[in-house]
Design goal:
This protein has 283 residues and is mostly helical. 55% of the residues lie in helices and 3% in strands.
């Protein structure tokens, strides 16, 4: 049986897997193994040449190796993990849906020529940072060890730094817009008395259950017990068959009662808030 610590490890590994994918893409670009124009977002190539992979691959490139690349990578590793271990703890499907919704929102905004950018990975990173800033508005953050400010002002401070360093602000702004749109639909609108209709689709739950990573409370789809398992047969070397045959019925019943009691979670352990949760359909 998987433990809560195992789920925490899955969450952290999923974030670092995303960082690894970005590193591989940038490393291949540095070595000249591919032309970045072949993975850039181009709606003309998507619709006329059916190069649909551009809708996904443009999120894998943060740019060439540079200080800005390192900062964006650290932002993914830090704030992505904090979100998964905080408001999205045991809500893997909801977290995946947040990223999918952000990517779809960015693709829709990129259809406007003035808002188009060839690579939108930086915008997706800024969306993650914005959602974190709304979830933890009072958290203290230090920027380069020089300025300490509340989490609510972090995206705006990073936006000001990009302005000072002469970087493009368009990808940061549309990332913040996508993050605010998600936060408004999932938190602000229900809290204001509106109906909560922005639920995680069923196909996302099925995808996470098939993937076999993380955990989703109140999930309508059962997790695949064989996900990520190559072999589940008997192991005679470990005496798996003999242990079952040599156990008496009374001992087997006592062992089952012990296992069932061990599976009961501690209802008061790690609970920060016991009220309604609109994201989980509590209302």
């Amino acid at each position: 049986m998987s433990t809560p610590a195992h789920f925490k490890l899955d969450q952290i590994l999923s974030i670092f897997a995303a960082c690894e994918q970005v590193l591989w893409t940038t490393s291949a670009l540095y070595l000249g193994l591919y032309d970045p124009r072949n993975i850039a977002l181009s709606y003309q190539d998507v619709f006329k040449r059916f190069q649909v992979w551009r809708l996904i691959t443009n999120f894998f490139l943060l740019g060439p190796f540079s200080p800005f690349f390192a900062i964006r990578l650290i932002m993914i590793a830090r704030y992505g993990v904090l979100l998964e271990r905080g408001p999205f703890d045991k809500r893997t499907a909801d977290y995946v849906w947040m990223l999918i919704f952000g990517a779809l929102s960015l693709l829709v905004m990129a259809a406007i020529p003035y808002l188009w950018t060839p690579f939108m990975a930086g915008s997706l990173v800024f969306m993650i940072v914005y959602v974190w800033s709304r979830e933890f508005p009072n958290a203290r953050n230090s920027i380069y060890g020089l300025v300490t400010l509340k989490g609510f002002y972090l995206p705006w401070a990073l936006l000001a730094l990009d302005l000072i360093f002469g970087a493009s602000l368009m990808e940061d702004i549309i990332g913040m817009v996508a993050g605010h749109l998600y936060y408004f639909l999932t938190v602000l609108h229900p809290l204001a008395g509106g109906k909560y209709v922005f639920k995680t689709p069923l196909w996302v739950h099925k995808l996470v259950a098939y993937w076999g990573k993380g955990i989703q409370v109140n999930s309508p789809v059962q997790r695949d017990p064989f996900a990520g398992v190559a072999f589940r047969g008997r192991s005679y070397r470990l005496n798996g068959n003999r242990a079952q045959t040599s156990t008496s019925p009374s001992e087997q019943e006592q062992q089952n009662q012990t296992n069932s009691s061990a599976r009961q979670p501690n209802s008061g352990d790690g609970v920060a808030f016991g009220g309604k949760s609109y994201r989980l359909g509590g209302r």
